Amino acid sequence: MIGGINGGGAMDFIKALTFGAILSAVIALVIGSQGVNSGPLAIQVVSVAEAKAYWSWPVFFGGSGLAFALMLLQR
Hints:
The chain is of the alpha+beta class and 75 residues long. Helix content is 55%, strand content 13%. α1 (9-32) runs antiparallel to α2 (57-73).
């Protein structure tokens, strides 16, 4: 069981991962499309089937952790 006294923390964790992925994709797309790819956000260009996508692991982990903490606080 992940987090929570009453259980159900696994669903909050999955929701937090989804939020982290969306946040990372949006921020990396906005900043990466301007040509910036380094710095503390560590935005990387990912090639998927002849398409370019931007991704940032630090933003993903930070956003997921923040969302998970907020969901646990709302219980």
